[in-house]
Amino acid sequence: MTILHSPRLTLRPSTPDDRADFIALERDPEVMRYLNGGVPMVTEEPDPQADYFMPRGGEPHLWAAFEKEGGAFAGWFCLWPEGEGVAELGYRLARSTWGRGLATEGARVLTEWGFVHAGHERITATTMAVNTGSRRVMEKIGMRHVSTIPYAGLAAIDGSEHGEVWYEISRTEWPA
Question: What CATH number is attached to the domain comprising 154?
């Protein structure tokens, strides 16, 4: 993995030193709203029953994101290999960064890296259908909606009756 830069973010491979920042994200009910219904995680150990990614630092394919100005922790981004030529984009950002376009910047630079350097042919992403903020990030980086499926998560989430949406973009669709 390499260090990536967007106009306002630096993404670097995660380390165990990022653990406290990652856990702080999981303890924020608004950050967790579309993952587990907003139940803040109260332990430092990942829930083995969770149906979503709970990083602790040092996981492969996971970048910690920091704002260039001031160096504040912004969140994390991942590009998780899912199979031959396919990876899933994921991200979780601190509430203090919301509404500033940082999710789009990080997702864009990581998607580009995935196509140009990691050799992925297709990148996917998923979220709850009602998570309009995350859906907008996917659309801004050029992903297209490919399906909506019934929600199959373990936690009751407001809006889960609308299902989960899947987005994707292929290398040939990516603007070079």
Answer: 3.40.630.30
